[in-house]
Specification:
Blueprint (H helix, E strand, L loop, with lengths): L8 E8 L2 E9 L4 E5 L21 E6 L23 H15 L4 E4 L3 H12 L4 E7 L6 H8 L7 H8 L11 H9 L4 H20 L13 H16 L8 H4 L9 E6 L7 H10 L3 E6 L11 H12 L2
Main location: cytoplasm
Organism: Lentzea jiangxiensis
GO molecular function, one term: aminopeptidase activity
């Protein structure tokens, strides 16, 4: 909707543990603050978000979570420890960034994994949040991880069999994300590369509704493929480092914060019932159900249009 303007400022912020997160700000430095929590986890920020925010009105902040994008050290390097890469670390990083930029309150926007992180941050720091927009709602409960790594096999039995058989036989009935994460941290490069390939084939199939051809996607790049697989399996295998039900059980802390939840009825990886449950427990949020949408935001599709409308509503 708007031109993708270049950032007026950017940099790396040291956040401890040897980590530096990359950030950038675009639009109007004196405008209404908004911040994007990207998905993945591990995907890095996408400059495409700038096109949803009027640069004359908004002060838009994009940042790369630990290990992703331009943040250092990169999770794509198997020598990089993931010990200090947890949900609480990311919440603390976002708060340090807000303080660094001198922002009092900001609008939060983020989908998929970004949804969980947006909600977890808002629950911990509600006084710092003006509004929330969430396309593709998730809360990272154990049952959500179990669904996307195993339950979806009922829809994609062909892809699931290949995904399950990518781990040792003794691990096939257990936590598949954790089993893959062990392979992705193997000292053997060939083991790591095959695990990243197998994980990504399943991941892409569940996002698109069955198409797992890497051509023209971010999975085509072996570095990104490994970074995503390693980071996502790290978070899912450890139940996002959250207590079960943490987000749903604490939504009362968002009382008074207006929100818009946007969810596709055809989202295989994140079924609508999670968005429905969040809306039920957060009375200040409006749930927009898109009958023709899945999990992916594409330029001009109904999800994209709904996001633009939500941003305009909160001008």
């Amino acid at each position: 909707m708007y031109p993708g303007v270049e950032p007026y400022a950017q940099g790396h912020l040291p956040v401890g543990d040897g980590q530096q997160i990359h950030w950038e700000a675009s639009g109007n430095p004196a405008g209404k603050p908004a911040v994007v929590f990207h998905g993945g986890p591990g995907s890095g920020s996408n400059p495409r978000w700038r096109e949803d925010f009027d640069p004359s009105h908004w002060n838009l902040v994009l940042w790369d979570q630990r290990g992703s994008g331009k943040s250092t050290p990169p999770a794509s390097d198997p020598r990089t420890s993931m010990e200090h890469n947890t949900t609480q670390h990311l919440i603390d990083d976002a708060e340090k960034l807000r303080e660094h930029l001198g922002i009092d309150r900001w609008l939060l926007i983020g989908g998929s994994w970004g949804s969980t992180l947006v909600l977890a941050y808002a629950i911990q720091h509600p006084e710092r949040v003006s509004e929330i927009i969430i396309p593709a709602v998730t809360t990272s409960r154990p049952e959500e991880h179990a669904w996307i790594t195993r339950g979806l096999g009922m829809f994609f039995p062909d892809h699931f069999e290949a995904f399950r058989d990518g781990v040792p036989e003794e691990d096939r009935d257990g936590n598949l994300a954790l089993a893959y994460n062990r392979l992705l941290n193997s000292p053997d490069a060939e083991v790591r590369e095959k695990a990243a390939w197998d994980w990504s084939k399943w991941d892409l199939a569940t996002i698109t509704g069955g198409d797992n051809d890497f051509t023209g996607t971010r999975y085509e790049d072996p570095v990104m493929r490994y970074q995503l697989a390693r980071t996502v399996s790290h978070y899912w295998g450890n139940e996002a480092f959250l207590e079960p039900g943490h987000v749903l059980d604490n939504l009362h802390r968002l009382e008074g914060i207006p929100g818009i939840l946007i969810h596709g009825r055809n989202d295989f990886g994140g079924p609508l019932h999670t968005a429905w449950e969040v809306a039920k427990r957060w009375p200040d949020a409006e749930l927009v159900i898109l009958n023709d949408a899945g999990h992916v935001i594409m330029e001009g599709n109904s999800m994209d249009r709904a996001i633009t409308a939500a941003v305009e509503k909160f001008r």
